[in-house]
């Protein structure tokens, strides 16, 4: 069964200690070791020859953030504070992880990694049947990815130690809510990536 490892929203504006969310999302990701655990998972996925992809949230500042929702309570402050601008440090992957040639770069403008992106087209073109997901935050992008992946008939695995939310309690509640839709909740060291 062909596997894809999809790392979601580990961009500087969200998880770097010097980013605008460093004091909350970044601090919790650091406490949980998300970057180091993700680096280990990436190493193992690459060794297993799994398809590797990165999903990043980002908006076009030259377009006046026209691609950013004006009605979403979650996204409403993005343009106001000038964050998550494509082409800037804020939407680059955290320095603790790297994208290599041949690995996917998917840019999204909503919570879901599938909404209005080419993620599913790439997964189908590569005969992927199993998704291993991780990222920040557990209660938003990971939650959405699990639910949509499940409903699109992928076997879904979440690496819980490569995820975090605003707090441990939010992370735990999210895991509990989507666990019934997952084939497995695993860790970077324990997951079997296969091919």
Q: How are the SSEs ordered, and which strands pair?
A:
Blueprint: E1 2-8, H1 12-15, H2 22-32, H3 34-47, E2 51-57, H4 76-81, E3 104-108, H5 119-125, E4 128-136, H6 138-151, E5 155-164, H7 168-178, E6 184-186
Parallel strand pairs: 1-2, 1-4, 2-3, 4-5, 5-6
How much is the average pLDDT?
Answer: 96
What is the CATH architecture descriptor? Answer: 3-Layer(aba) Sandwich
CATH level 4 superfamily: Isochorismatase-like
Strand order, main sheet: write it out: 3-2-1-4-5-6
Give the CATH topology.
Rossmann fold
Number-wise, the strands total 6
Write structural notes for this entry.
The chain has a single domain (2-186), classed as Rossmann fold, CATH 3.40.50. It is built from seven helices and six strands, in the order E-H-H-H-E-H-E-H-E-H-E-H-E. The termini are close together. By secondary structure, it is α/β, with parallel strands linked by helices. Helix 6 packs parallel to helix 7 (168-178). Helix 6 links the parallel strand 4 (128-136) and strand 5. A six-stranded parallel sheet has the order 3-2-1-4-5-6, sandwiched between helices. The protein is globular. The mean pLDDT is 96.
Key terms:
21% strand; 6-stranded parallel sheet; alpha/beta; 7 helices
């Amino acid at each position: 069964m062909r596997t894809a490892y999809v790392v979601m929203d580990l961009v500087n504006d969200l998880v770097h200690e010097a980013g605008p969310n460093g004091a909350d999302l970044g601090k919790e990701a650091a406490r949980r070791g998300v970057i180091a655990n993700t680096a280990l998972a990436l190493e193992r996925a690459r060794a297993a020859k799994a398809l590797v992809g990165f999903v990043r949230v980002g908006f076009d500042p030259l377009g006046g953030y026209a691609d950013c929702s004006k009605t979403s309570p979650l996204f409403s402050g993005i343009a106001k504070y000038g964050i998550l601008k494509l082409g800037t440090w804020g939407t680059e992957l955290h320095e603790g992880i790297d994208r290599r040639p041949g690995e996917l770069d998917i840019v999204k403008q909503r919570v879901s990694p599938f909404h209005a992106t080419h993620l599913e087209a790439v997964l189908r073109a590569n005969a992927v049947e199993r998704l291993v997901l991780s990222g920040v935050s557990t209660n938003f992008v990971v939650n959405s990815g699990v639910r949509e992946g499940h409903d699109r008939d992928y076997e879904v695995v979440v690496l819980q130690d490569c995820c975090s939310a605003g707090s441990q309690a939010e992370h735990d509640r999210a895991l509990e809510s989507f666990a019934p839709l997952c084939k497995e909740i695993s860790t970077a060291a324990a997951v079997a990536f296969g091919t």
